[in-house]
Amino acid sequence: MENCIFCKIIAGEIPSAKVYEDDDMLIIKDINPQADVHYLLLPKEHYANIVEMTDAQAQTLAGCIKKLSAMVDELGLKDGFRLVSNKGKHGCQSVEHLHIHILGGSQLSENMA
Ligand code: 5GP
Ligand code: ZN
Q1: Ligand 1 pocket residues where CB is under 6 Å
Q2: Where are the strands (E) in the chain, listed by range?
């Protein structure tokens, strides 16, 4: 998708700190971390959010999360983590390419909003 910053990162047109890549997804470090460990899981296929997601994209995303679950130790998340996907204005989504924030590395707040 033209003018999508995450599509440009996936295409290698914008540099990023990649921690994992396969045919379906990229995991990168967030440029403005909100926790000691803050990654972004980016599906390679462009769609804006979970409301726009097709059944096939949902299946792929589920597979990505399953793969993530096998990597938590090496990603520095062995004591736990939080997955967040912001959608729309109330969710404060700023990049319209679905992404899952992966937060952890130390004790997170109980307050999620
Ligand atoms: P949102 O607000 O849409 O849920 O999250 C977008 C996230 O993307 C933010 O946490 C922001 O720091 C991150 N981000 C924005 N631009 C870039 C970039 O160019 N590189 C990386 N690695 N992260 C980015
Ligand atoms: Zn995109």
Answers
A1: 5, 14, 16, 28-32, 40, 86, 92-95
A2: 18-21, 25-29, 37-43, 81-84, 100-104
Which residue is associated with the tokens 């990229």?
A: 26
Domains of the chain: 5-104 (3.30.428.10)
Q: What is the dihedral sign for C-alpha 25, 28, 32, 38?
A: positive
Atom of ligand 1 nearest to the CA of 92: 2
Ligand 1 centre distance from Cα of residue 87 (Å): 13
DSSP 6-35: HHHHHTTSS---EEEE-SSEEEEE-SS-SS
Kindly state the tokens that stand for 27.
């995991």
As a whole number of angstroms, the distance between CA 89 and CA 41 comes to 20
Number of Cβ within 10 Å of residue 79's Cβ equals: 11
pLDDT (tens digit, 9 = 90+) per residue, 57-92? 999 999 999 999 999 999 999 999 999 999 999 999
pTM for the complete prediction? Answer: 0.98
101 is catalytic: no
